[in-house]
Amino acid sequence: MVLEQAFLELIRRAAVDLSPDVETALRSAHDSEAAGSPAAAVMKTILENVRQARENSTPICQDTGSLVFYIDHPLGGSEPPLRRAIEAAAEEATQRQYLRPNAVDPLTGLNSGNNLGINAPHIHFHQWEKPETRIRLMLKGGGSENVGAQYKLPHAAVKAGRDLDGVRRVVIDAVLNAQGLGCAPGFIGIGIGGGRDTAYTLSKEQFFRRVGERSPRPELAELEIRLKEELNHLGIGPMGFGGATTVLDVFADAQHRHPATFFVSITYTCWAFRRKSMTIINGEVTHD
Fold first, then answer.
1. Among the residues of 33-77, which ranges form H helices?
2. What is the set of domains in the chain, with CATH numbers?
3. Crossing angle of the two packed helices 80-95 and 2-16, in degrees rounded to 10
4. What are the pLDDT digits (tens) for 161-192?
5. Does pTM top 0.90 for this prediction?
């Protein structure tokens, strides 16, 4: 029961309390928009929404997203108790309306009503040689998920070759195609290399980095900085109304690939950038 309550609080915090680094980025974006412009009005409304959600402990967005957990646990740790606690917490969070029922059977079209189902919540387990258990949670909205994209380089349509300039070109193409449909301003996660599945996984895991946290690899850090600048020059702006801020940050990482493939996966998440974490060590739970 204690573990279930810890997960319930983790879900509540993710759903209602936007992380400080994200809120700071939103305030900066508001200040960069022209006074009286539609973009500035959108950003003002977003910030007011963030405030009310936190004060009233209500969801930041009506789409409370799909639950995606990344769990790192000590060697020899048991996974089933964690899974059971997550499922119980997700069901309770749905009853308390921290979460909207978002688990739909694609064959029947029926909603489970409690956010539980096959791969719902989706949980990545990983063992590590540390004494603590680290749980990271992302609430991934459906609208922004719809505008994600994957490219196979070379990609002739935008003259993208198998290099970082090719990666840059397809990321710009993906964001240009998304326009305002991902609830801009958003955050961009880029996974370079691997297979079709692992490229998407890598791109999504980038969202656990803090806003402004650059890749430790200099060439990727340079790509992130350049792309943020170029994407904001597209003029798509908040919710597609035009303006100075189309993306709030860009995160990229790379992994080894098969010689015959070169996949680039772009995951888009909206301004409601909901991720939280907690740590368990010696039975003590700490939320971020």
1. 38-56
2. 2-13+60-141+275-287 (3.30.360), 143-269 (3.30.1330)
3. 50
4. 999 999 999 999 999 999 989 999 999 999 99
5. yes
